[in-house]
Amino acid sequence: MASTRKRKRELKRLKNTASTVVDEQREVLEHAGKVLREARRQMGDYARTDVAPRFFEAYDSRVKPRVAQSVAAGRAAAYVGRNRLADDVIPAVAGTISSTLAVLEAAKDPRVRELVKKAEKKTKNYGKYAAKQVRPAKSGGPGKYILAAFGIAAVAAVAYAAWQTLRADDDLWIEDVADVDPAV
């Protein structure tokens, strides 16, 4: 297909206009790049001269002392908790466990078993008349009562140790926090 001269002129004119627009866009983009570089430089100067000093001043005067105070309080609380655990809870639990083990060992002793059997025989002899009147339910023996007593003692000892550990002791906390230097 052959184009007419008029179309060729219009295409040439359009091509020149497009080239001119592209050149103008390049100039605009170069100018925008220069403006952005200058703005970046100005923002860097502003951040160095105005923002950074304010930030570091606020950090040194507000954040740093609070963090140091919180760390000191945390250390004091950990120290008190560790001492309470070592001085109150562990000895109480160990005492309860050792008492329970001692009773269990005593229950295994043949002399203790012999005494329990004698006590049962005596109670049977004394209570023949009462046994005829009311039939008692069979029990598993004194072992379950002994174990129940030790279980109750163990629960009481653990509850007491927990209470001693968790109770509010305001004087102790005040003294520990007062001894800590907040500038640390």
UniProtKB/TrEMBL annotation:
The chain crosses the membrane at residues 145-163. It comes from Schumannella soli. The keyword Transmembrane applies. Keywords: Membrane, Transmembrane, Transmembrane helix. This is DNA helicase.
